[in-house]
């Protein structure tokens, strides 16, 4: 199996912010993409990684690209509003049909994540070089496999509770910050036939995505979020189900002419 | 305490469908409102119940009305699209700030519910007079208090799985139908500071809302969903939190000039 | 309604440890009991509080006492093994039938809590005067009502993850410590017809139970955990259910001669 | 990877009950083991399957065998009490350390399952040849991969709600029965570092384990429950954690002389 990953980057800070240019000379998306490729290779997984940037979003997040994407990572911060609503809804539709989504850090405020959560996704923040420690709280979760307990991030923007999200379906990581705040930093959500893993470490002003442990988390998460082999990429349907539709010889197409799903 | 309930009714079938007119001569909303008033009175709870109809939705679901509403019940079916987006978003905003919401039956497809879920809310259906049995699966849930196990509904539209919703935060009821399908018929969701209880029994072509057991469920749910006394109706905020903001004498307003919440 | 609370205290440290005697001259149980009584009175709730100590546990946690107890708080540390297995199982049985249980701090290792969890309940710890900050992560939870965000506890034993418990049914509080660790410090569990709230702040060597915010949490938790009026205190039963048992005129006693539950 | 499965069978009905002998001439355990081997082979997974029977339980569920077992399936019914407490606790210990456990049908009452749940595990039942339909309610769960929606079991013992278990961490399947009852028939639980999948179809008097769809569920579940490669089989530990133990060069063994876990 080849894992097909699309790395979406806003690529705005990289154009004007010297600190970001020093940390990520080829853009944050390049560091994220290379980290995924290398770490997954070490885990024996072949990958095909594409880059999608806000400037070429109409092409790089087209319906065709998303249909061929197993897992989409999403980093955005200052230009969430520049993502067309239609593309945000397209991403959401593909998640519901089975595509994995990894919203990273400030993507808590991205359009696709907010649409999928239904909440404000508000939180506390402070950009003041806090130390962050990322703790595993699930003993058998594949996203925590091989990850140090805790991951120590020497400097990072603080994200703190109350984080206005639905209770995660699985809580993998919790973070504390040197300033005393806590945060649900690694959260799994199931939506439709797709999987979403929100991971908060990773601000543009800190070299977080260069850290091997962070790359390992992202690699684990990509494996976790990918659709399973042999599952069709379709949404859960609305169907008029005639009586006994699920019995041999009885089931026919629904009123709307579409055959009823016999496998979810 | 007086529980302030607003009963939203689409009131469309009532205008042209003879079967519905016979079952609900004064409209489904009236039956729902009267059932809530009577059942809550029996439970010793005083209520103030308003009716809001699609025809006067701009007035009856105004910001002022919602701010004075503890719990909003919502029934809609053929005219979901006639609810203005702005009002759907207003309802969602009030839920996030603490208002309770009870989407009923075909309101699985209403705009506010879909916005709060983030999923398609698709399902199977069949209008063929199925018997529905509503089973309690949570031993200590207040919404199941005093409710028969099972509630038997002699005739009802079938709603079946797969129901495309996020996994409920609390599963209170599961239903089976005479045709063999199952459904997660009573589901609790926490969103922001608000509570949502989706309850599927109740189609316009069956006298479900006249059934005392169903009225009891709705009354229990209204009590469960109401905001707690002494809690402010505000959303979870996004705030820039200066270091040590939570220590005595240090905390000041955030960068945006708004004081940080010290009580959620 | 009068809320009937039984406060179980191990009362061992109090007998030989001077530091504990200074902090809690009448025993930790007395401080806990008085805090509950006073805080609940302020909330308008009448209480009837009994004390149960390890030395008189056979009498004070008898079947009769537990049957008349709405909520049992449990503090123990160095003498968990001195609690007879039979009494631990009795407590567990009453929880399953509807009694509320509040295991406090080192009661993570108490026999009733471990029996109810099914896990080791292991954790990290350090007794080194850490500052603990208790953060609310659920926007509408009654146990967080009126509680500062965060509660700051100036000195406290550190309890850290990985805490080996089942994922809580509701996560109310998360704590961070000055040493950098995090902990799921306020956790709700539903078991049978009963409710369990584990709350970790509260070591014998620190004056935690004298803090008004902590007393408020315990008072809120007692209200949350109490069985609802009008619910019978019985376990979920195993029953042989004859076909159509739930239809009028058909249901009879199960094979074992016991009538089937028609209300959970 | 070779998946190492141990199939535990009580093998009592097989000794005296003619109906069972006809359905399962070589014992239910043999049918379960062969179904797992064949189905996993079809999925491209190599297996090593051992049989463990109650008569030789001391040897076949020894500490050594369990340490070499990735997933243990458990079927028992009339002889739960003949399983020594020590062996039940041994199984529980291995689950907490990472072994997968699949309790089947009447194993809802087995000692290991009850110890892991902490509840009574009571339910309704009726042995009267009900039709059971097993519906998928999780759109992306690997245990539902390739499984018909619904699985129809022509004849089966009815298991009905209220089933006294903690709310499952993941609900995969819900069943309805021709008599009208519903049941949470496929339930995932995380306990310590291990995974538990309870699956209710499968009574000794019906040929359920010969059904290919049921075999597929068990194969999927074995893959889901198996410990992940590269994860050590150890319990979550209790440890005294010196300040800064997680920083480079500072961490030493805990007070108890055991090194602290740096990977969960």
UniProtKB/TrEMBL annotation, chains A, B, C, D:
UniProt cross-references to Pfam families, sorted A to Z: ThuA
Source superkingdom: Bacteria
UniProt cross-references to InterPro entries, sorted A to Z: Class_I_gatase-like (IPR029062), ThuA-like (IPR029010), Trehalose_catabolism_ThuA_prok (IPR009381)
Coiled coil: none
Domain ThuA-like, first and last residues per copy: 6-225
SUPFAM superfamilies assigned to the protein according to its UniProt record, in alphabetical order: Class I glutamine amidotransferase-like (SSF52317)
Name of this protein: Trehalose utilization protein ThuA
Record organism: Brachybacterium endophyticum
């Amino acid at each position: 199996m080849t894992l097909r990953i699309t790395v979406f980057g806003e690529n705005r800070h990289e154009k004007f912010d010297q600190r970001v240019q020093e940390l990520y000379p080829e853009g944050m998306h390049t560091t994220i993409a290379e980290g995924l490729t290398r770490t997954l290779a070490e885990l024996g997984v072949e990958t095909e990684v594409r880059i999608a940037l806000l400037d070429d979003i109409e092409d790089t997040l087209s319906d065709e690209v998303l249909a061929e994407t197993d897992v989409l990572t999403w980093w955005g911060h200052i230009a969430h509003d520049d993502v067309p609503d239609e593309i945000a809804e397209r991403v959401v539709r593909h998640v519901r049909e089975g595509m994995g989504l990894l919203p990273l850090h400030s993507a808590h405020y991205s359009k696709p994540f907010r649409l999928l959560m239904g909440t404000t996704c508000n939180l506390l923040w402070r950009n003041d070089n806090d130390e962050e420690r990322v703790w595993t709280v699930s003993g058998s979760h594949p996203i925590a496999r091989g990850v140090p307990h805790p991951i120590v991030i020497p400097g990072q923007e603080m994200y703190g509770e109350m984080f206005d999200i639905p209770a995660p379906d699985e809580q993998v990581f919790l973070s504390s910050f040197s300033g005393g705040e806590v945060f649900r930093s690694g959260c799994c959500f199931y939506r439709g036939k797709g999987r979403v893993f929100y991971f908060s470490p990773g601000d543009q002003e800190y070299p977080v995505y260069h850290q091997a442990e962070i790359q390992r988390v992202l690699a684990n998460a990509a494996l976790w979020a990918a659709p399973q082999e042999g599952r069709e990429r379709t949404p859960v349907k609305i169907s008029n189900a005639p009586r006994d539709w699920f019995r041999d010889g009885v089931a026919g197409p629904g009123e709307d002419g579409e055959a009823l799903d016999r496998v979810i």
